[in-house]
Write a structure and sequence with these properties.
TIM Barrel; Rossmann fold; Hnrnp arginine n-methyltransferase1; 8-stranded parallel β-barrel; 7-stranded antiparallel sheet; binds S-adenosylmethionine; methyltransferase
Length: 650
């Protein structure tokens, strides 16, 4: 189904590509001509552009049927819905000073969308607002959106930012005092309260704004990218091609499931010969669509994309899907959750490296055959860290005695059978207990644990390890020895809308584990909370407070912050680390997705204005929770006061 949502990175033959067409009252011919020419769908005007309600001598208030468009019977319902995107008349101007034009525009907009709904089109494209004010346009659209059925509306927005795009801009849209076009979209969607059926169709011109400014759009609901033939360059062989900047943009849009539409007249005289990168295929009978060379180039760009690594392919279904974080302390994990953990060989090989280094530091070579190191795996699950520790001992030729402590009785069953199966009875002792309650018969040289959440401490590793520190020798080693959480502000329209759809406060005050994809990361990450083990301070406390200031780079332009992406990095031992903080993330490790802290009301940030954020980690007798808020450039409410919406049980 050409207009359906597809996973980004899907490597089928070619990407769906549409064509913007002129008005033609012979729709069957228009469609067959373009589909025959290789396009998947047409962006077609549904009404005669000469039509103006005020010129028709009919009383519209009685909703008399008007002869404004062709019959619905000319195409089958599936042809309408799969191959046609409706193009709302581009002359409409709902914020015009001219009252007649304004009224004509409102009537026409409503009639055209009603007609498109009747045809079961999947989407209609709305003309770019004409002036800087779009209040009346948005008001009418809000009325329409209230009863729209399933159709999507794509607001057409040129991708332009004054300082870097104006000179090469398309005069059709450029006006005096022109603003960053993202601002236009932002005003419009704020007036329409982030309606989930309102998205963007981006017009790409010959000049593409800076990478930082373009990246803002990756967090917005962009559905289509319309490239005019004028934006193409000519390669050495005379074929159309795109600049490197355009190529990067289109490739990124492919990755975000954005459909490409070619628009305009052919401006390249394409030679008949073929080349490797421009396969100039002709249709039967030698006929070739005048825009086929542009279509071929778009298909070539799509084919050129690197295939997704296997792990990314596996994770496609999780992209931008909100999940509640685990509560491994309060709840007992299920077998399938352990199974997913255990597939992550990278995580365990990092632990093995860390244990090996600690063993060698602890026991010099000359003592290796004499000294036995006591190692305790606290929170052993079904045993992978026990195995990694034993392998480290074998690799370093150190003698090891292991205690595997686990509070989940179901996992303990598996641990027992593992120990028997592997013949580890002489080396490994299984303890079915909460580490905070266990009365250990001796003290440990090394304490190994993996109690980390996406935000480091959010699965209560600090509280558990505080309880276990009693049985770690004074000079003992904890693996991990420390971990730090990080955050960065993001535009994440989809996540915001998914949370909003629950229509309650609780969902806006809950952090989610999510494979972030359709997000714009607006600044580098900054550290939030750090925990160190063992903790030797006099008055240890796991409460934390951090104030952070983010400066969004100037060339990004204005942005809307929907929340904060959170990550962690852990030092296992010395230089062996493990984490998901983007700049240092452990390659090919997949045990953790980032966490997302939403904001109840998105915060608008102008370039050059700092964003000030506060995060608290609060501890009660039965629970731990986070509170967060923004204080600049404008104050947001404090989120999750007293852990009223989200907490982690002790
Ligand atoms: C994230 S899993 C890691 C399991 C395993 N070590 C691995 O890496 O696959 C954390 C494990 O710690 C256990 N756990 C959490 N808190 C604990 C506590 N206070 N005492 C004992 N076990 C605990 C959980 O039941 C779970 O099996």
């Amino acid at each position: 189904m050409p207009l359906g949502e597809r996973y980004g990175g899907d490597k089928s033959e070619s990407r769906y590509c549409g064509i913007e067409t002129e008005f033609d009252d012979d729709m069957p011919n228009l469609l067959s001509y373009n589909v025959h020419g290789g396009f998947d769908f047409v962006l077609a005007t549904l009404m005669d552009p000469k039509y103006r309600p005020s010129l028709v001598d009919i009383d519209t208030s009685r909703s008399t049927a008007l002869p404004f468009a062709g019959s619905d019977l000319v195409l089958s319902p599936s042809q309408w819905s799969s191959h046609v995107v409706g193009k709302i008349s581009s002359w409409i101007d709902l914020d015009s000073e001219d009252e007649i034009l304004r009224q004509d525009s409102e009537i026409t907009l409503k009639q055209e969308i009603a007609w498109a709904s009747h045809l079961s089109l999947q989407a209609c494209i709305l003309p770019t607002p004409k002036g800087s004010s779009c209040a009346n346009y948005a008001r009418c659209l809000n009325q329409i959106l209230q009863n729209l059925g399933g159709m999507q509306l794509w607001l057409r927005i040129p991708m332009v930012k004054p300082e870097d795009g104006i000179e090469a801009g398309n005069p059709e849209y450029m006006r005096e005092g022109d603003v960053d076009s993202w601002e236009l979209w932002n005003s419009f969607r704020l007036l329409c309260e982030h309606h989930s059926q309102l998205s963007v169709a981006i017009d790409i011109w010959s000049s593409v704004p800076s990478a930082a400014s373009v990246a803002r759009w990756y967090g917005e609901p962009v559905r289509a990218a319309i490239i005019n033939t004028n934006s193409f360059l000519t390669n050495a062989k005379g074929y159309p091609c795109l600049s490197k900047r355009h190529q990067r943009l289109i490739t990124a849009f492919f990755d975000h499931s954005v459909q490409v539409v070619i628009s305009g007249q052919p401006v390249h005289k394409v030679p008949v010969a073929t080349s490797a990168s421009n396969v100039d295929t002709q249709n039967e009978g030698g006929w070739r669509h005048p825009l086929k060379a542009y279509l071929d180039y778009v298909a070539f760009l799509y084919q050129k994309m690197d295939p997704l690594p296997e792990q990314e392919r596996f994770e496609l279904g999780y992209r931008d899907y909100l999940q509640s974080p685990l509560q491994p302390l309060m709840d007992n994990l299920e077998a399938q959750t352990y199974e997913i953990f255990e597939k992550d060989t990278v995580k365990y090989s990092q632990y093995q490296r860390a244990v090996a280094k600690a063993l060698v530091d602890r026991v010099p070579d000359e003592d290796a055959s004499r000294v036995t190191t006591v190692l305790m795996v606290v929170g052993a699950g079904r045993g992978p860290l026990v195995r990694a520790s034993l392998q480290a001992a074998e690799e370093t030729e150190r003698k090891l005695k292991v205690y595997a402590v686990e509070k989940n009785p179901n996992a303990v069953v598996t641990l027992h059978s593992l120990v028997k199966l592997e013949g580890w009875e002489q080396t490994v002792t299984i303890i079915s207990s909460d580490m905070r309650d266990w009365d250990a018969p001796e003290k440990a040289d090394i304490l190994v644990s993996e109690l980390l959440g996406s935000f480091g401490d959010n699965e209560l590793s600090p509280e558990c390890l505080d309880g276990a520190q009693r049985f770690l020798k004074e000079d003992g080693i904890s693996i991990p020895s420390s971990y730090t959480s990080f955050i960065q502000p993001v535009t994440a329209c989809k996540l915001y809308n998914d949370i909003k759809s629950h229509k309650d406060l609780v969902h806006f005050e809950t952090p989610y584990v999510v494979k972030l994809h359709r997000v714009a990361r607006l600044a580098n990450t900054q550290p939030v909370f750090t925990f160190t083990h063992p903790e030797h301070s006099d008055k240890p406390s796991n409460q934390r407070y951090k104030k952070l200031q983010f400066d969004i780079p100037e060339d990004t332009g204005a942005t809307l912050i929907h929340g904060f992406a959170g990550y962690f990095d852990a030092t296992l031992y010395k230089d062996v680390h493990l984490g998901i903080e983007p700049s240092t993330a452990t390659p090919n490790m997949f045990s953790w997705f980032p966490i997302f802290f939403p904001l109840r009301a998105p915060v608008y940030v102008k370039p050059g204005t700092p964003l000030e954020v506060h995060f608290w980690r609060c501890c009660g007798s039965t629970k731990v929770w986070y509170e967060w808020s923004v204080t600049a450039p404008s104050a947001s409410p404090l989120h999750n006061t007293n852990g009223r919406s989200y907490w982690v049980g002790l």
